[in-house]
Amino acid sequence: MAQLTGYTNFKYFSVTSASPAVAHVEINRPSKLNAFLEAMWLEMGQIFGKLSIDPEVRAVVLSGAGDRAFTAGLDVQSASQDSPLAPGRKDGPTDTARKATLLRRHIAEFQECISAIEKCEKPVIVVTHGISIGLAVDIACCADIRICAADTKWSVKEVDIGMAADIGTLSRLPKIVGSASWVKDVCLSARYFDAAEALAVGFVSQVHESKAAALAAAFKTAALIASKSPVAVQGTKEILNHARDHTVEDSLRYTGIWNSASLQSNDFTTALLSGIQKKKPVFEKL
């Protein structure tokens, strides 16, 4: 794969071009099981913010480097030293309200960086393998399509480190999976669940025998999406995400307003004529 132009300045991520208009973002700290430092989630936010408006990109595949883990979640040792509430820190406020304000801002920044995956205008396909715990679930919940290798071991791990998950799993997972009982089962217990269970409850849409096979499937799907009208694809993602969080009536109104603009695109005519002319349509960058 070729390096994607404009994405060479990231320390913890590799961003390459998997095929025309398809970006591959790879978490690249395999020696530490791709566990996240603060610098990593800041980079992730920057990358997906940039991909969102990059006209050369129409679909994104996100995976983790190495054989052992998609990500082991938060680098707890680093967090225990760098957190605003890290034991022994002398440079922070001592007042309770001021400590709370500092921590709230820290959490909000972290949330925003991970939410950049969901807010990315381009569809994001996440491919998980091996150890996929804690932050791995937060990240996967933000993706549009979830594909995993058969060896994936998931866990909403936060209760085991004395906290409620706060980066998005508890907000998004209940809307992804239909069973509230199952969601509470895995979130309250921090127990591991495997790829087969994730598929059975609808958390992932595909399971493949290996990481390589899962990646191949993701790249194939991403290439197919990238061949479609970017106006239609990005509009579809926007409307689906809006519908998830609003009533049917509100969503229908929003769709009407959205399409009143997007249906004026040349893409609409191009797509219609391609069927009549029996030729593959080619769409402009967006």
What does this entry look like structurally?
The structure is a single chain. The protein is of the alpha/beta class and about 290 residues long. The protein has 2 domains: about 1-225, 2-enoyl-CoA Hydratase, Chain A, domain 1 (Alpha-Beta Complex); about 230-275, Lyase 2-enoyl-coa Hydratase, Chain  A, domain 2 (Orthogonal Bundle). Helix content is about 50%, strand content about 15%. The chain has helices at about 40-50, 75-80, 95-120, 135-140, 170-175, 180-190, 195-200, 210-225, 230-245, 250-260, 265-275, and strands spanning about 1-5, 15-20, 20-25, 60-65, 70, 125-130, 130-135, 145-150, 155, 195, 205-210. The protein has a 7-stranded mixed sheet, with helices on both faces. Helix 1 (about 40-50) packs across helix 3 (about 95-120), helix 3 crosses helix 4 (about 135-140) and helix 9 packs antiparallel against helix 10 (about 250-260). The chain is globular, with a radius of gyration of 20 Å. The model has no long low-confidence stretch (mean pLDDT about 95).
